[in-house]
Amino acid sequence: MMRDTAWLSKKVHDSPYTSYYIEDTDELTVTLLREMAKLFPQCERSNQEDSSLQFKLVEIEALGKEGFEILHMDGKIIVQANTTNGLLYGMFQLHQDLVTKNELKPVFRSVPDQAVRMLNHWDNFDGSVERGYAGDSLFYDNNQFRKNYDTIREYARLLKAIGINALTINNVNVHKEETFFITQPYLSEVKAIAEIFKEYGLTLYLSINFAAPISVGGLTTADPLDEDVNKFWADAANEIYAEIPYFGGFVVKADSEGEPGPFVYDRNHDDGANMLARALQPHGGIVIWRCFVYNHLQDWRDRSIDRARAAYDNFMPLDGNFDDNVILQIKNGPIDFQVREPVSPLFGGLTKTNHVLEFQVAQEYTGQQKHVCYLMPMWKDVLDFDTKHHKENATVKELLPKNSPNIQRSGISAVVNVGIDNNWTGHKLAQVNLYGYGKLIWNNAITSEEVLDQWLDLTFDLTPKGKEILTEIIATSYQTYENYTAPLGIGFMVRPNHHYGPDIDGYEYDRWGTYHFADRNGIGVNRTLKDGTGYARQYADARFEEYENIETCPDDIVLFFHHLPYTHVLHSGKTVVQHIYDTHFEGYEKVEEYVKVWEQLKDEVDEASYNNVRERLAEQKRCALEWRDQINTYFYRKSGIADEHKRQIYG
Ligand code: GCV
What we know:
One of its GO terms (biological process) is xylan catabolic process. Keywords: Hydrolase. This is Alpha-glucuronidase. One of its GO terms (molecular function) is xylan alpha-1,2-glucuronosidase activity. This protein has helices at 27-39, 84-99, 149-161, 186-199, 212-215, 227-243, 269-280, 310-315, 346-349, 376-384, 396-402, 431-442, 448-459, 464-484, 541-548, 558-561, 576-599, 607-639, and strands spanning 19-22, 44-46, 53-57, 68-73, 76-81, 107-110, 116-120, 140-141, 144-145, 166-168, 203-208, 249-252, 286-290, 326-331, 355-360, 411-415, 522-523, 564-565. By secondary structure, it is of the alpha/beta class. It folds into three domains: 6-110, Chitobiase, domain 2, CATH 3.30.379; 116-459, Glycosidases (TIM Barrel), CATH 3.20.20; 460-525 and 563-651, Alpha-Beta Complex (Alpha-d-glucuronidase, C-terminal Domain). The strands form four sheets. It has an eight-stranded parallel β-barrel with strand order 7-10-11-12-13-14-15-16. The chain has a six-stranded mixed β-sheet with strand order 2-1-3-5-4-6. The relative contact order is 0.09. Bound molecules: 4-O-methyl-alpha-D-glucopyranuronic acid. 4-O-methyl-alpha-D-glucopyranuronic acid binds next to loops.
């Protein structure tokens, strides 16, 4: 079966540009030529410098290494950039503009807002993907590399077309065999993949296991201050760069959820990260060190521990201690990619350490690519969040580059949502999340609506009515998902381990630190400074005061910060319990509506996509009903308060 080539499936056929000019400069020109042949089949290369379509290398400082301009005048188009890499980005933009019939401006300049624009695969060598919902790994099967280079090349072009410039290809939980990826014979296999991404200007990184000096090197310790351990990593780096001179570096999950790290040796994260950084530094490599560090063996009886505090408590005191080639990677929220969380206080907090933000495109907690859930609105909220660390210009998107001492080492990363499934993402509509992620981190000002509009035009051939229907489904899907799942920012309530479907108390008496504390009177976690865990104090003053005070704390995250009686009246005018009932009825009804209106698209989308979405919507409806009834019943039983509208709630 032909793979669904997502946003590069349509070619430019009916444009007046029948010939183009480009100088042959470097190996990326080969890629550009190949892409032109694929995407603009009627446009032939010419040696006429004044062809109707020209790709030009220029020297315009403001464009940097990746930016480009598309000039449209006198019937000609000129794509210009300082590098062939920039031209390649420009060509994909032009393809998109022509396919979607976007009116070309006389001068369109595009320079990425974030320097690091990365994806992390959580793929395992056995072919499984941790939190993967689109089939097995693209790269591995049964402890072998798949060597499916055509598919990988197809993937590389999809990523380039949306602006991604780096990726890791193995899980941050680095299991036994994958620990050896930094050595031969695996290194040659890694190189074969790295070469393909390099054709598109993407840099490949590996996740490494902090204990590799023991398991690979045969040492008795992985202590970052031990000389032999330092030598092990320096040798490993030498070997890697001898094979792959353009290798990006390491991504590290250390002292997190059972992964080894410096704590074992009474050392800290800066000791561990800087030790690896020293090994990579002579080669220009980078260490990306994750801040997802918390006590995952918590006793639920111990109310003094708050998982939300952990990243800030661990890393804030180390700000400024990290080498220039270390980047900290911080999840968008303090817990774990919930449908609604406050923004991590490390953004705006850290000012002396390079850092990137981590999103999750994979829908671990947002319906696992069985439910439609458009994540752009959430990501926009995070990037536009005003940390209030300064009077102005203190949004997350502005502070990421500003608060990293080396602007080239700041940006955004994300757990990707693709697998070997023919449509890449399992749920066809989940493609929009990958597309949107790339577009948004390149251009932080793009709106959710613009992204959706583009993706629909690139993907389907819809009538205006059809487009309206699909726009409505996708645009409302995030709010819908939130409505029928965990309310008011409390999070979790999912089945343990696989995290799919409702299980309200599933984690309540467990060790993972994700509690909601519902009792007969109320629900929520008291994270105030006054008499709670004090998490609220990790924010800048204005935010702290806003969250600390129940009068000003926003409704949508109020249960994250406060334990409230069910009868507490929200800013919306509803009580907590009535809000829960209303949103859960609304959420489910909306899914019922999606199922119905999708049928109207039968003749508008290809059969595979039609059936794919229809089947998944049916599952979403089944699951949303479970959520609705379990949540409503749970809170009815706890509170004894009836629904004002007397809808059916099971006793
Ligand atoms: C890769 C969550 C997920 C884990 C994941 C972890 C992480 O806890 O459930 O599967 O592990 O985040 O981000 O490291």
